[in-house]
Design brief:
There is one protein chain. This protein is mainly beta. Among the domains are: 6-61 and 127-137, SH3 type barrels, CATH 2.30.30; 66-120, SH3 type barrels (Roll); 227-302, OB fold (Dihydrolipoamide Acetyltransferase, E2P) (Beta Barrel), CATH 2.40.50. It is built from two helices and 17 strands. The chain has helices spanning 160-165, 199-209; strands at residues 6-9, 14-17, 26-30, 35-43, 54-59, 66-69, 84-88, 97-102, 109-113, 116-119, 126-130, 134-137, 227-237, 247-250, 257-262, 277-285, 294-302. It has a five-stranded antiparallel beta sheet, with no helix packed on it. A five-stranded mixed beta barrel has the order 13-14-15-17-16. A three-stranded antiparallel beta sheet has the order 6-10-9, with no helix packed on it. Strand 16 and strand 17 (294-302) form a beta hairpin. It is globular and about 50 Å long. It starts with 5 loop residues before the first strand and ends with a strand.
Length: 304
């Protein structure tokens, strides 16, 4: 399959997500100047109007591994046994689908976890990037044939390629496309939607001073079933009056709060990890009462 048009990343810490919304799983983080292969565009599905409505579908970066359900892969031949096989962003059916493999397709296994296989991303896997953070680039026109190739002499019959070169029409100069105007910055917008130099400042100011964004009249954030996750971040005390617990997990990359933390296990003392870089495991779910996901803590480990 021929490669699609490419785009250049304009902002540092640009997330590649599993679906066109800021609550989609982060599959990779790109830096300014990286390139991605454009697959197509898709409308966003963000909540409460805080997400941009313009996302670009891109080919999955090669450094990202995807997951498939192990029993549907032949252990000897490493080929798909079922009629088709979903590619997912994590080891579970509650993770987003990022592609599909047909029967007989071969996979390259990286590792196994609880019946799920992490594989190298095959052709056709995709993800999403906020369109205002990348700039589309047209494919460069091929160089013109040397002047000697335009001679009026009839070329030898054994060299038809030279004869064709006299008929090549120079490619038109590609149209310069203007990058789309990013949407207005709102207090609850994650760092993906603001200029790279001010992303961390805006996110921090919004978390400390901005009032809670009210839920829309027609709920667009439905409750979701819990899923087992592993999150990395900085454990902080939550000063949000609407927080379901006393602590929250903030991004190590300046993207704001990742989860509200709820602790029902008296043997886990979250206070001693305050301000530290940690790994937190537990059940994560969304509830219409809160803007952010809620993580029920099962264990906490220091990442230092």
């Amino acid at each position: 399959m021929a490669a699609g048009p490419t785009a250049i990343v304009k902002a540092d810490r640009t997330n590649v997500r599993a679906k066109p919304a800021f609550d989609g799983e982060v599959l990779a983080t790109l830096k300014k100047g990286d390139t991605v292969e454009v697959v197509g565009a898709e409308a966003g599905t963000g909540v409460d109007g805080s997400s941009p409505k313009d996302w670009t579908k891109v080919a999955l970066p090669p450094q990202v591994a995807v997951w498939v359900y192990g029993p549907l892969v032949d252990g000897a031949t490493k080929t798909v046994k079922g009629k088709s096989l979903n590619l997912r962003a994590g080891p579970g059916r509650n993770y987003s689908e990022i592609g599909l493999l047909p029967r007989g397709a071969t996979v390259v296994v990286v590792r196994e976890s609880d019946g799920w296989l992490q594989i190298e991303p095959p052709a056709g896997t995709y993800a999403f990037v906020a369109s205002n953070l990348i700039e589309r680039k047209e494919v460069d026109a091929p160089a013109e044939a040397p002047a000697v190739a335009t001679t009026t002499e009839k070329p030898p019959a054994a060299r038809p390629a030279i004869a064709e070169s006299t008929l090549v029409v120079p490619a038109e100069v590609p149209e310069v496309k203007t990058a789309p105007i990013p949407p207005p910055v709102r207090p609850s917008v994650p760092a993906d939607t603001v200029a790279p130099a001010a992303a961390a400042v805006v996110e921090t100011a919004a978390a400390a001073t901005a009032p809670a964004v009210p839920l829309p009249a027609v709920p667009v954030l439905a409750d979701s079933a819990p899923r087992q996750v592993l999150r990395e971040g900085i454990l902080r005390r939550s000063w949000n009056a609407n927080s379901p617990g006393n602590f929250e997990l903030r991004s190590t990359r300046g993207e704001g709060t990742l989860d509200f933390l709820v602790n029902e296990d008296p043997s886990i003392d979250l206070a001693k990890f305050k301000g530290k870089h940690v790994f937190v495991t537990g059940e994560e779910w969304r509830d219409a009462r809160w803007k952010l996901p809620v993580l029920k803590v099962k264990s906490v480990e220091s990442a230092d």
